[in-house]
Amino acid sequence: MTIQSVTVPGEFLDLLERPLIAHLATVRDDGAPQVNPMWFSWDGEYIRFTHTNFRRKYRNVTANPVVSLSIVDPANPYRYLEVRGVVERIDADPAGAFFVELAERYDAPFGATPPPDAAARVIFVVRPTATSAH
Amino acid sequence: MTIQSVTVPGEFLDLLERPLIAHLATVRDDGAPQVNPMWFSWDGEYIRFTHTNFRRKYRNVTANPVVSLSIVDPANPYRYLEVRGVVERIDADPAGAFFVELAERYDAPFGATPPPDAAARVIFVVRPTATSAH
Prior knowledge:
The structure is a homodimer. By secondary structure, chain A is α+β, with helices and mostly antiparallel strands.
C-alpha cells in the first residue's frame, strides 16, 4: 500500500520547525490510546522521534503504526497543530546519534551525549497523512 | 463492570489543579488515534472536558470511551503526567455553564460567556484508571 502524504499548512509549519514538545498518541494492544510528551525533528517530509526498542510505545507502534501528535504554541495555547500519520519505518540508532541530535535541538539541560540506553535506541520515522490546525 | 479508579501521585497533582492544557487522545472509528489540546477541570475524582455533541471527538468517545491525556509542566517540559481513563458518562451542558466555568478557570482571552454552540455543549466525565508520570 502506498501511503499518501499530506502537506502541513504553511502558517503552522513553525510548530514543527521549532523545538517544541509534541504529545504523541499511540494505540496499545488492548485498543486504548496512550499519549506522552516527546522530542521530535522535522525535515519537511518526515517527523522523527527517538525511542528505545524495549518500552511500551515501541510495542504499540510495531503492532499498530498509526499515530497522532499534538503541538501547541507556548505563546498562544489556542494555536495548535495536530498531525496524524503512520510510522513508515523504525530505524536503528545504536550509537544514540539521533538522540544527541535531538538533545542539541532541544538544548537539553542534561547535555547532549549518548544516553545510557544508546544500544537500544531507535527512530520512529513518521509520514504525515492528515493534519488539523487552528 | 465496575471501573477501578487510580490515585494520581501527589507530587504531580498540581498538573491537574493548575489551568494547563491537556492533550486528550481518543481512538477514531478506524482504530487510529487522535490527539488535541483541551481545557479540563479536576475535582479530585473526575477530569472533565467541554465538547460538543456533533464533532469527531464526541463520536470517538461515544463509540469507544477509553481515553488518555498528557500534561507537561510549562516551567519544566521534562516533568509530565499521563492519565489514562474512561469516559464514564457524558453530561449535557445546554446553557454552556461548564464551558463558562472552564473559560474562567483558564482566563480565556475571548471572555467567559456561553459559546455560540452552547445548545450542543456536553461534558466528558473521565474516571482515571492509570497514570504514568516523571
